[in-house]
Amino acid sequence: MKTDSVTNEIELEKLEQIERGKRIKNIRINELHLNKTQLANKIGVSSQFLGLVEDGKGNLVYKSIKKLRSLSGHSSDYILYGLDDTIINKTNEFLKNYTEEEIINAIKLIKEITIFIKK
Fold it and tell me: What is the mean pLDDT of the chain?
């Protein structure tokens, strides 16, 4: 039975790698409007290796993910796992309308509400 769980884990990892490659390709084409060679040069890999990554057959190292993150404006969580990172930008934009004191008071109020709800 342990072999089945290891096999399932490997399969899930392969699927994640394929999805990650699709996200990176989408960022390259639809957001950065770069060809493989251009993006590869910017993140410090060969265009052949970037092709493997986009096909789900390779993974970028930390340094390259960091560069891609800076270029694209996406979080590492989005690049690696597909987690929605638009909420961070939307929240920052929304909070620009308030002072630091107003934000702190709102957080205190939210804490009080959660304590009340738990009772």
Answer: 92
